[in-house]
TrEMBL record:
Organism: Myceligenerans crystallogenes
Pfam families, A to Z: HTH_1, LysR_substrate
Protein name: LysR family transcriptional regulator
InterPro entries from the UniProt entry: ArsR-like_HTH, LysR_HTH_N, LysR_subst-bd, WH-like_DNA-bd_sf, WH_DNA-bd_sf
Cross-referenced Gene3D superfamilies: Periplasmic binding protein-like II (3.40.190.10), Winged helix-like DNA-binding domain superfamily/Winged helix DNA-binding domain (1.10.10.10)
Keywords of the record: DNA-binding, Transcription, Transcription regulation
Superkingdom of origin organism: Bacteria
Family indicated by similarity: Belongs to the LysR transcriptional regulatory family.
C-alpha cells in the first residue's frame, strides 16, 4: 500500500501533467529542474508504482501517473479551499473592515448594519470615515478604507457622482426615493402622517428653493430643468436638519433623499416621494472584498432591502 503522499510532490506531479514537461513544471512552480525531478522520484517511491516513463528526451505519465495527477488536482483544490476558508474565518474572528460613507448613511443604514455584524462576529472591528462620495472614492483608492458607500442620482441627466464605475467591484445596496419637502402649513388636502401626493414640480416654479450638498444641488437643478424651469435658490446648506427647519419656517421648498428623513423628520414639514426620482446607493471595493468587508457589505444590503420594503409599504398607505 502507498505511504502517506506528500502534498508538495503531488503539486509537482500535477504541474508536470498540466504543462507537459519537467522543465515547464519547474518554470511554473519556480523550482529548479533538479528539485522537480527529485520530488517526482520520491513520489514514485511513496506511491510504490512507476508514475513517469521516458519519451525521447522528455517524460510522459504512466496510467498510474495520470490517475494520481487527476486526483492530485482534486486534493490540492480542496486543500487550497480549506486554507482560504480558515484564513477567512481567522479574519472574521479578529479582522477589521474600514468603511467610508456619507452622513445620512452614517445616521441610518450603517448603525443597523454594524449592530448585526457585531452580533454575528464579536471580534470583527469596524472603522468608519465620514466622507461624501468623491472623498470616499479617494480614500478607497488610497487604501485608507476597504469599502466606499456612495450614491448617484440615476433618473435625470447631470454630472455623475462617480465617473467610471468599471474600475470598482460594485454592490447595489438599495435605491432610495427622493422626496419633495414643503411646509406643513402648505400641505395639500389629503395629507396623512406628514406624507402627501407630490405636486408637479412645474407648479413650484415661482417658489424659493433650498439646495443641499453639491451633488444634491446638481440633481435639483437637473430635475427642475426637466420640468421646464430654473429654481430660484434662496439658501444652500449641507445640513439636512437645517433644510427641514428652513422649509418648516416657510423659507422655501426642497428635495431630500429618504435616508435624511429617517435620520430626522421635522414635524413642521410634509413630504412626498417624487415619481421616478431615485438615488442609487452602492458599496464599492477595489477587486473582490476581503472577508470582513464582504460580511459588512452583506449586512448593508440586508438593511437596504428592509428599508426598501418599508419605503414601498409607506407609499401604499
Amino acid at each position: 500500500m502507498p505511504a502517506d503522499l506528500d502534498l508538495t510532490r503531488l503539486r509537482v506531479l500535477a504541474a508536470v501533467a498540466r504543462t507537459g514537461s519537467v522543465t515547464a513544471a519547474a518554470r511554473e512552480l519556480g523550482y529548479a529542474q533538479p528539485s522537480v525531478s527529485h520530488h517526482l522520484a520520491r513520489l514514485e517511491t511513496e506511491a510504490g508504482i512507476p508514475l513517469l516513463q521516458r519519451a525521447g528526451r522528455g517524460v510522459r505519465l504512466t496510467e498510474a501517473g495520470r490517475l494520481l495527477a487527476d486526483r492530485a488536482e482534486e486534493i490540492l483544490a480542496r486543500v487550497d479551499g480549506a486554507a482560504r476558508e480558515l484564513e477567512a474565518l481567522a479574519e472574521l474572528r479578529a479582522g477589521r473592515a474600514r468603511l467610508a460613507a456619507f452622513p445620512s448613511a452614517l445616521a441610518t443604514i450603517i448603525p443597523a448594519a454594524v449592530a448585526t455584524l457585531r452580533a454575528d462576529h464579536p471580534g470583527l472591528a469596524v472603522g468608519l470615515l465620514e466622507a461624501e462620495p468623491p472623498e470616499a472614492v479617494d480614500a478607497l483608492r488610497a487604501g485608507k478604507v476597504d469599502v466606499a458607500l456612495v450614491f448617484e442620482h440615476t433618473d435625470v441627466a447631470h454630472t455623475r457622482t462617480i465617473e467610471d464605475l468599471s474600475r470598482f467591484e460594485v454592490t447595489d445596496v438599495f435605491d432610495e426615493p427622493v422626496h419633495l419637502v414643503q411646509a406643513a402649513r402648505d400641505a395639500p388636502p389629503g395629507t396623512r402622517g406628514g406624507v402627501c401626493d407630490a405636486p408637479a414640480l412645474a407648479t413650484l416654479a415661482d417658489a424659493d428653493w433650498i439646495a443641499g450638498c453639491e451633488r444634491c444641488r446638481a440633481d435639483l437643478l437637473a430635475r427642475c430643468a426637466q420640468a421646464g424651469f430654473a429654481p430660484r435658490i434662496a439658501f444652500e446648506t449641507d445640513d439636512y436638519v437645517a433644510i427641514q427647519a428652513l422649509v418648516a419656517s416657510g423659507a422655501g421648498v426642497s428635495t431630500v433623499p429618504a435616508l435624511t428623513l429617517r435620520a430626522h423628520r421635522d414635524p413642521g414639514v410634509v413630504t412626498a416621494p417624487l415619481p421616478g426620482a431615485i438615488r442609487r446607493i452602492m458599496a464599492l471595493t477595489i477587486g473582490a472584498p476581503t472577508p470582513p468587508a464582504r460580511e459588512l457589505i452583506d449586512r448593508l444590503t440586508a438593511v437596504g432591502r428592509r428599508f426598501a420594503d418599508e419605503d414601498a409599504l409607506a407609499a401604499l398607505v
